[in-house]
Every structure is written in structure tokens, then in C-alpha cells.
Design goal:
The chain is built from 12 helices and 15 strands. The chain is of the alpha/beta class and about 375 residues long. The chain has an 11-stranded mixed β-sheet, with helices on both faces. A two-stranded parallel ribbon has the order 1-2. It has a two-stranded antiparallel sheet with strand order 7-8. It is elongated. Bound molecules: S-adenosyl-L-homocysteine and iron/sulfur cluster (SF4). The site of S-adenosyl-L-homocysteine has 17 residues, from β10 and β12. Iron/sulfur cluster (SF4) binds next to loops.
Length: about 375
């Protein structure tokens, strides 16, 4: 479906606002004023930009919109992981997750409030365990739709976000230019001013795009969704591995690691009977050593309609202890409140299914 309407001003970089101003015979310093209204004062209309001349406000209102996505529902309470369901201008649904302060996520400090953002409507990669790919792929989000997830979550929650992970619905590196642009806006001092080291992109293994990202002048972090330490395990659960096998992926990671100071992360969901054997742990530790990567083990979150489940706590701990015996830096997510945090795509799926079945979803509707 074609996206209706005007460009959202939140998809523009400061220099692009400046270039636009030149076409309207306006002074360049106005660009920073406009950015302040959007990202600091958070106004919802050009009319509220009271230090701009009237004719400029009219031009802006004719050429752009502010925002464009709206909150449909939230799920969760203040002290646990909260999910937000948003409707885009063309009616599609996406979701973001706000994870409260907790140790050992992607930032280093424990006082981080992390947002998990979506980058696509659906996902084309069809990992067998994931809710996001179940309905296939609809479209890429544009950069303003990514940036607006942060703005809306801060507005709805009243909290300042200081850590961003691109781990919601979709494959960020398949939407490369919009994701890189969104990172620039999120990171910019005129934008959301979140430090690049507190921004992490996760990929299921798009090897060429990992190399391309390595060449971008960005300091953000990269997480690789490995979920298997051999081709046979990855082939079973991640179709992308048939295109870029493990060695192709790891050598793209070698390249990435050679270009960046920050450590890579390996994401490894533990799925009972699939990837949780001792042998996989030994091999995983070897891959981590090769890349000096940190390993995040995440017990699998059940997805309605899928047969996978998480291993017992004993098995999870055993897997972790093997990694540690090898000297790997590894964490196992144990906090109960975070049970839903890595499973973006589920709220949207629930909402879509209830739209089809006519049931009321088990989520709270936001009062407006
Ligand atoms: N497409 C990217 C980013 C989005 S998925 C990627 O695959 O990396 C973000 C993370 O959530 C990935 O590591 C993914 O494997 C994980 N994930 C997906 N479904 C999950 C589930 N049911 N339980 C736990 N983690 C899940
Ligand atoms: Fe897509 Fe990532 Fe889910 Fe795989 S795990 S289907 S790449 S969102």
C-alpha cells in the first residue's frame, strides 16, 4: 500500500532542514530552532513554533507533518516491561517495548531505560521461532516512524529513554538506509541526543550489510542473532543461514570487529532440544573467542501457535557454565519482568488475531 500524505519532518536531518529553508528564502539558523521545537519542546503543530515567522510556519505546514503514528494500546505496568502498540498512517500496526532499569542489558550501567524498536512491518526472514515473521513482510518503516516510537514511548511513559535496541519487529539491516538515518537522528545533539554506545542494532545475519555497516561512520553497537553454533542448527531454525552460512557470517563479523573498538554481542536464544546441547555451548564459546564477542543467553519466550519451548533452568545454567569455563563473557537473562522483552511481534500478532476473531485482546487500551 502507498503511504499516504506528506513527509514527516522527523525523517529529516538538520542539514536537510537547512537545505529546505534555503528553498524558502529562510535563514539557516532557523533549522536548529525547528529541531528544538520537535525534539526538545516536543510540539505537535507548526503553529506552536512561535519564534518562527508566520510565512515559514505556513510553508512547513504545507510541506510536512509532525508525527503521524498513534498509540493504540499499552501492555504492562510501570515497574515491568511495557509494550506499546502503534498504528501507522496507512493503518499497519507496529510495536515497541520499554524495558525498565536492569543490569546487564546492552548499556553498561544499571540505570538504563531501554526501548526496543521495530524497523519493519512484519519480517521477511521467517525464523521458525519468531512471532514477527509469522505473517510475512509488509513494508519497511521510514526513519520518522522509527524515531517516533521513541518520542511516543517517552510521551506515554513520562520516562526518558537512554538506551535503544533495534530488536523489535523486522530485520534492521534489510532496511539499511532508514535505520542508519534513524540512528543519526536519535544520536544527534540537535535530535534525541542518545549516545551511540547506547544504541544497538541486532541482525539475524545479513553478512553483506554487516560489512556495509562496519564502513558507516557510526559508533553504535551490533548484536548478531546467532542462536546456533553450527550450520545444521542454524539451517533448522533460521532460513537466512542458507543464504549466508555461518562462516560467511562470522567472516563479515571479523571485518566488523576489525573496524570497531566496541565489542560485538552474540544473541543466543535457548530453545529446548534445538540449540541447548553441551556441544553447541563449546562451539559457541569458540566463535565468541574468535570475535571477542559478549554472549547474551535468552531463554526462549513461548509464542502462541509455535511448538518451541525454553530449556529447564538447570540446562540453561549448565549452558552458561560451559561458556564461562571457556572464558567467555556471557550473561543469562533471569529477570522475570523481562520475560516478554525479546519477543517483539507478539503484541501485534495478538491484536491482529483478535481483529480477525473479534475477541478482546488481553491488553489495556490507552485512554485518550
Ligand atoms: N531481526 C533482528 C532483530 C529483531 S529480533 C534479529 O533477528 O536479530 C530481536 C531478537 O529477538 C533476536 O535475537 C530474535 O532472535 C529474538 N527473538 C525472536 N523471537 C523470540 C522469542 N520468542 N523468544 C526470545 N527471543 C526471541
Ligand atoms: Fe525476522 Fe529477527 Fe524474527 Fe528472524 S528473529 S523472523 S530476522 S525479526
Amino acid at each position: 500500500m502507498q503511504k499516504p500524505g506528506k513527509t514527516s519532518i522527523q525523517s529529516l536531518l538538520l542539514e536537510e532542514i537547512t537545505a529546505y529553508l534555503a528553498t524558502r528564502d529562510q535563514r539557516p539558523y532557523r533549522a536548529k530552532q525547528i529541531a528544538d521545537w520537535i525534539y526538545e519542546k516536543r510540539v505537535n503543530s507548526f503553529d506552536e513554533m512561535t519564534d518562527l515567522p508566520n510565512d515559514l510556519r505556513n510553508h512547513l505546514a504545507n510541506d510536512f507533518v509532525i508525527g503521524g503514528i498513534e498509540t493504540v494500546r499499552t501492555l504492562g505496568s510501570d515497574d515491568t516491561t511495557r509494550k506499546f502498540l502503534f498504528r501507522l498512517r496507512d493503518g499497519d500496526l507496529i510495536e515497541s517495548v520499554l524495558i525498565p532499569a536492569s543490569p546487564a542489558l546492552y548499556g553498561q550501567q544499571s540505570d538504563r531505560r531501554t526501548i526496543c524498536v521495530s524497523t519493519q512491518v512484519g519480517c521477511a526472514y521467517g525464523c521458525k521461532f519468531c512471532a514477527s515473521g509469522l505473517d510475512g513482510f509488509t513494508r519497511n518503516l521510514d526513519s520518522s516512524e522509527i524515531v517516533q516510537q521513541l518520542l511516543l514511548v517517552e510521551k506515554e511513559s513520562g520516562e526518558k529513554i537512554n538506551n535503544v535496541v533495534f530488536m523489535g519487529m523486522g530485520e534492521p539491516l534489510a532496511n539499511f538506509s532508514n535505520v542508519v538515518r534513524a540512528i543519526r537522528i536519535i544520536n544527534a545533539t540537535w535530535g534525541l541526543e542518545i549516545g551511540a554506545r547506547h544504541i544497538a542494532v541486532s541482525t539475524s545475519g545479513l553478512a553483506p550489510q554487516i560489512r556495509k555497516l562496519a564502513d558507516e561512520p557510526l559508533q553504535s553497537r551490533l548484536a548478531i542473532s546467532l542462536h546456533g553454533a553450527t550450520d545444521s542448527v542454524r539451517n533448522k531454525i533460521m532460513p537466512i543461514n542458507r543464504k549466508y552460512d555461518l562462516e560467511t557470517l562470522l567472516s563479515a563479523c571479523d571485518y566488523y570487529a576489525s573496524r570497531r573498538k566496541q565489542r560485538l554481542y552474540f544473541e543466543y536464544i535457548l530453545i529446548a532440544g534445538i540449540n541447548d546441547s553441551d556441544e553447541q555451548a563449546h562451539l559457541l564459546a569458540g566463535h565468541a573467542r574468535r570475535l571477542n564477542a559478549k554472549i547474551n543467553l535468552i531463554p526462549y519466550n513461548k509464542v502462541e501457535g509455535l511448538e518451541w519451548s525454553r530449556p529447564s533452568r538447570t540446562r540453561q545454567e549448565r549452558f552458561l557454565s560451559i561458556l564461562r569455563e571457556h572464558g567467555s563473557v556471557a550473561t543469562l537473562r533471569r529477570e522475570k519482568g523481562h520475560d516478554i522483552d525479546a519477543a517483539c511481534g507478539q503484541l501485534r500478532l495478538q491484536a491482529k488475531r483478535s481483529e480477525v476473531s473479534g475477541e478482546t485482546p488481553k491488553v489495556r487500551t490507552v485512554a485518550r
